[in-house]
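Internal tracking record. Fields below are filled automatically when a chain is submitted to the structure queue. Please do not edit lines marked as system-generated. If the sequence contains nonstandard residues, flag them in the REMARKS field before resubmitting.
Queue: standard
Priority: normal
Entity type: single polypeptide chain
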Amino acid sequence: MKDTRHLAELLSDYNATIGMMQTSGLPIEEIQALESERMVLHNMIIEEVKRLGYTVRSREEAIWIAQQIV
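SYSTEM-GENERATED OUTPUT FOLLOWS
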């Protein structure tokens, strides 16, 4: 079994970032910073899923795969 700890950490950070983005009343600058962070984490999740040997056909599929294997 491949080590999925790093993927689990990335997915946790990704979900936390999305949660923070849903906080009402955030200044636009903070929302933009969180969106940038979310995109970076999403890209890192895609790369980690690929490193674990999975084929990724879309950004959404990468998150779905990550959720299934963590």
